[in-house]
Structure formats: structure tokens, C-alpha cells
Amino acid sequence: MGGVLEGLRVVDLSTGIPAGFAARLLADNGADVIKVESPAGDVLRQDIYDFVYCNMGKRSVVLDLEDGDARAALDVVLDRADVVIESCDAAGRERYGLDPDRLRAGRETLIVISVTPFGGSGPYRDWRGSEHVLYGMGHEMYATGQPDLPPGPLAPYVSWLTIGFSAAVVTVAAMYGVANGQGGSHYDISGFEAMAASIDRRAHALVAYAYCGDPLTRGGTPEMFPPHANPCADGWVSVAAGGLWWEPFCRVVGLPELAEFRTAPAVGTVPEDVHAAWRNWCSTRTKREISDLFQGAGVPSEPMNTMADLLRDDHLRSRSFFKGVDVEDSAGMVPGPIVRLGGPEQDAWPAAPRLGEHTTEVLREAGVDERWIMRLTAQEATA
Fold it and tell me: Family assignment (predicted)?
């Protein structure tokens, strides 16, 4: 595909979203990412859309690491690798010979990135962790939501992708070190720590508590008028009218019911007749009309987009955000790379690989004996 990472060889031994997404970010920027899967495939293949998103541009190799010959073939592939990304727990590493020290033995510049829920050491090292677990333990779930309700989670995958971004950043930093003469190393990424260090409230809340003993609490900041979500003629729209935006907001709306407020009031303090007048004002206009009116006055306002809205959005189209891609041999569209560091712009994007699609190709490139390849692929076919 081209890009600043062209020529970088990455072996992705992970399953699931966080580590797989980190490897996909490297593939987006030109790295050759070889995804090693068991004969059953990555568990993420059970949801083809999740799999496609996290694995576009990779090559799939099937190796049954229960088998000694397959582990030996993996070692040959690793001899040509620059980076390994894996997500095994301690038992899996021992069972499949994926201990980072063993992977790096004799490979001085190899970078090994381990992405697990709690890291490879400490009392929690063997604990399982869903994204809600990691958000609840490491992030601000305790302070999310209203004070009279239980703590609330984030939308799905926000935690996973935060952890994946963290792993990708560490990988690129490690590559910079190798390029400047440092040896490779093993980097142990803990999802728990990635969430606890996130700038999205938790990190600054930890600092504030450590210095001042001041914790965040649920519902500590009242919602200001207008509400964050407002029904209009064709859906919902969001408007931010606090601070310096209150006067231009009132000027655009032109409702005398708002004149008594000198600044944006808390939603709960606004009389029902004012809420009714605001809802009526919105109901006669589309979300795009409302956003255009407020943006023209310098007030932040955005339509709450459906999937269909995003696919036909003029701004995203002008920036070539969506790319064509095959999904199980059917033409589709996907969001383009989140971070594109260079290389030629493309209208289409490489498809996610079919299971084992590149096994023979990759093993031949690595120099594995043809009879050995035939034996391994025969095992794959009968698995």
C-alpha cells in the first residue's frame, strides 16, 4: 500500500480487538502484517464486520501451534520479523512457546508487544478482562452517569480501541529506538493501566485526588440548556450554548422566553414553557438547517448522524474518508485509516484476509521447505 512503514514486517499472533487493532494501524501505514491464526481462526471472525475493521490489509497464515512442526515454521517466519504483537496469557505462552524471552532469543532487534488485560506481572496477571471490567477498574465508570443511578459504561469498543492505540504508539516508539541503534525489547501493555492513564477524565482525576483528595462524583456537573440532544424535524441535533455562545444562541433562536437568562442555565431550572418553545423551534427545522444556522453565528452545533447520514456526508466524501473494500467477496465501504502517515492516497483499501489465504505464500517467502509447507497445509485442510 505504501506508507512510512513500508518494509516493516509484523507478525500478529493476537486474537480479539485491542492488539489486532494496533496491528491494523501499522498495516494502514504500509507495514506487512502477517496474522497467524489457529485452524479455527481468530474468535473475532464470528463477527465478520469487527474482523474486517481490525484486520484490513493483513495476510492470514494458519498454523496449529499445538503441533511442533507448526511452531518450528513460525520460528522461521519470526527470523524475518521486526515486530511481534501477541495477546496470550501466561498459560498460552508456555503452551505454544510464545514466551517473549524465547521469541527474542537470537533476534536482538526484534520488538515484542504483549497486550493483555492486566499485564504479564502482578497479582492480576492471570485475570480475565472484558472492556467493561477494564473501564470499571481503571477508568471513570464509577463517576459516569447520574447520582441516583448505578455507574454507567461507555459505548462498546471505546476501551478496546484506546488500549489498541496505546499499543500502536508504543510499537512506533520502539521502532524509532531500533532505527537509532538501540536493541529490540519486550513491551508489556496492560489494558488496566492504559485506561487508568487515559486523559479522558481518569488521569487528571487521579492527579487531582492525589494532590487535593477531590474525587469525581456521578452527576457532579449539571447539564446546561439546551439539552445535549434535541429532537428536530428529521432526527436529533446537539447545540452548545454555554459561556460566550449564549448571546449568539439567543439571537439565532429569537425566543423572548430566553431573554430573562443572562447565561446558559441548568436544564433543570428552565420552566416547561421555555422547553416547549425551544422544542417547537427545533421541530420546524432539519438538523442540518439548525447546525448551519448556529455554525453561521459561531455557536457549536452538530447533527446527530445516523449511519446513512455519515455515508452520504459531503465533508467526509470531500476528504475521501470512506474506502471501497471487499467483505467476503462482496463490495463494501469502510472508514479509511484513522492515522495515515504518508504514502499515496487510495480509493480502495485492501480486504481483510480469508482464513489461511496466504499460508503458502508467506511460508515460501520465509524459506520454509516445500515438503514442510505441503505437510502443514495438509494439516490445515483436514483440521
Answer: Belongs to the CoA-transferase III family.
Domain total of the chain: 2
Residue 257, in any domain of the structure: yes
| Rounded alpha-carbon distances, angstroms, from residue 69 to 60, 73, 321, 374 | 18, 6, 43, 12
- pTM of the predicted structure, to 2 decimals: 0.89
Helix axes 18-28, 48-55, angle to 10 degrees: 50
What DSSP element (H or E) covers 302?
strand 301-303
Task: List the grid coordinates of 5.
Answer: 512503514
Secondary structure of residue 238 in the 3-state scheme: strand
Chain segment 61-116, per-residue pLDDT in tens: 999 999 999 999 999 999 999 999 999 999 999 999 999 999 999 999 999 999 99
Same structural domain, 22 and 140: yes
Q: Give the Cα separation of 265 and 258 in Å (integer).
A: 10
Specify whether 24 is located in the same domain as 125: yes
Q: How do residues 324-350 score in pLDDT, each as one tens digit?
A: 887 777 788 888 777 777 666 666 678
Q: What angle do CA 52, 55, 58 make, to 5 degrees?
A: 130
Contact assessment for residue 115 and residue 86, using Cβ atoms and an 8 Å cutoff: yes
